[in-house]
Amino acid sequence: MNNHLSSLATARTWSRRVVSALFLAGVLAGATSCNDDSDSDSTSIKLAGPKPEWGPTIHPEMQTVIEKLDQLSGGVPLNTLTPQQARMAPSATDAVMAVMRDYNIPAPVPQVDTTGQRIPVSGGTIRVRIYRPKNATGNLPAIVYYHGGGWVIANLNTYDPSARALSEQTGAVVVSVAYRQAPEFKFPTAHNDSFAAYRWVRDNATTLNINAQRIAVAGESAGGNLAGAVCLMARSASVPLPVHQLLVYPIARYDMNTTSYTQYANAKPLSKPLMQWFYDKYLTSSADGTNPLISLVNATNLGSLPPATVINAEIDPLQSEGQEYASKLKAAGVSVTSKVYEGVTHEFFGMATVVPEAREAQALAASELKKSLQ
């Protein structure tokens, strides 16, 4: 373990230097949705090795990001670390920025302004980051966005590319929520914080210059679970529902014996052992896992929920449960658009500057959101 930690510290130091350089170049601020001018930049990417055993169908750009992430992290699995150490480890976003640096891939000019503030929740406050399209006027629609990280790791910066992309491509204000994380805060704290943030956005619509009748929710991975759960919580509390739910590779079933868990147990950046590590940190007991707020597929009366867009990656343990929840919503009469993107892994959605499938997925998400936000 000491050797692992030494490798991690070295990798994180190198990664921070890369990130600092990219900050100065303005890359982080613009590493979001990618316009057509940069579509050709990723074609010159060269792979360092053969396709991994766990991902024989992986596409070159995606593989390059995974290889870079392995390089930055020294190959240390997150599930061998403490939560505090894992939060310091290089992220997929760090890897994308390093690939951009390696291949001189330019970042698009940011089209949103950001502000930050703290909002009240039960037992304290949490941070939110508000993205507003530049030069926008009037009451805009809004999207409350929840980042991923298994309810344990990651932060607003890690998922900044996704939040920016959604704001830029939908013309909506995006409120990105930094809910409290495990193991310091166990289930259902992240869920309660997420619902409190949704209510805060609704209650402060006038101050935020948004239209309270046009608010959607969105999230990735654990954040996709939170976005779906907020819809259930709003219904239970008789709070007006979001007009749309964007669920990107959501955690939706407490079951690690699904087809995709079996096929992609050793995938990167999310593996079966890492997902078990997340559950161990956030849940108090296995009984929590059957709660519909964790296992969305266990929820009832799905027909009353808002339209949904469900996006999954092919090479991802969570593929099966995400598509199962999409099927259950559709069977209940909910309008659902769902798609599995081939050749990519968990976390691909925010990688639009490098990964073509991320650009496609962001465009699909924005198109479906706009239909509900109009």
From TrEMBL:
<dbReference type="InterPro" id="IPR013094">
    <property type="entry name" value="AB_hydrolase_3"/>
</dbReference>
<dbReference type="InterPro" id="IPR029058">
    <property type="entry name" value="AB_hydrolase_fold"/>
</dbReference>
<dbReference type="Pfam" id="PF07859">
    <property type="entry name" value="Abhydrolase_3"/>
</dbReference>
<dbReference type="InterPro" id="IPR050300">
    <property type="entry name" value="GDXG_lipolytic_enzyme"/>
</dbReference>
<feature type="domain" description="Alpha/beta hydrolase fold-3">
    <location>
        <begin position="143"/>
        <end position="349"/>
    </location>
</feature>
<dbReference type="GO" id="GO:0016787">
    <property type="term" value="F:hydrolase activity"/>
</dbReference>
<feature type="region of interest" description="Disordered">
    <location>
        <begin position="33"/>
        <end position="54"/>
    </location>
</feature>
<protein>
    <submittedName>
        <fullName>Alpha/beta hydrolase</fullName>
    </submittedName>
</protein>
<keyword id="KW-0378">Hydrolase</keyword>
